[in-house]
Design brief:
DUF948 domain-containing protein, transmembrane helix, membrane, transmembrane, mainly alpha
């Protein structure tokens, strides 16, 4: 057994048998791998045909949703403005109703006063009752001082005081403006 040629031949036969066994076992695996490659190729073809239009549809849908959101926002804003206008109209109507109610009351009170005045019995003769001189009340010191001509205000000062009062009454109007 020392023949090297024998051992070389035997190892070559064993290597050939091993390679044949591996090749026989690898053939079904390679066939499955080829089938998987064909399936992957079909999938990639389908994706390359279908994916761009789908992505474009998704992008278009996103833009439409954005437009609809803006439209809804504008609708909500305009509805808010309409509600404010209706509220202002209701306030105006309420104020007008209060003015009408006040005016109606004033008219009724005026008519009632006129009716009482109209239907009242008029006295035939007016009498003025005067106190006799002895029964007249005596004036206090302060009243006598006010009646003295030197303590009375001159007409110019009286007008100036009333003008000042008139100016004070205009303050409210100036504040409102």
């Amino acid at each position: 057994m020392t023949e090297p040629l024998f051992w070389l031949g035997l190892s070559i036969v064993l290597v050939a048998a091993s390679l044949t066994a591996v090749l026989v076992a690898a053939i079904p695996a390679l066939q499955e791998l080829a089938r998987a490659a064909r399936s992957a190729e079909k999938l990639f073809d389908t994706l390359s045909r279908e994916l761009p239009p789908t992505l474009e549809a998704i992008r278009t849908t996103g833009l439409e949703i954005t437009d609809l959101t803006e439209d809804v926002s504008e609708g909500v804003k305009s509805a808010g403005q309409v509600v404010k206008q209706v509220d202002q109209s209701l306030d105006g109507a309420r104020k007008q109703a209060q003015n009408i109610q006040t005016g109606t009351r004033s008219v009724f009170v005026g008519v009632k006063a006129a009716w009482k005045t109209f239907t009242r019995q008029k006295p035939t003769r007016r009498t003025v009752e005067r106190l006799p001189i002895t029964e007249q009340s005596s004036l206090t010191v302060r009243e006598r001082e006010a009646l003295k001509p030197e303590n009375r205000l001159p007409k110019a000062e009286a007008y100036r005081i009333s003008d000042g009062y008139q100016e004070a009454s205009n303050w409210d109007n100036e504040i409102d403006e």
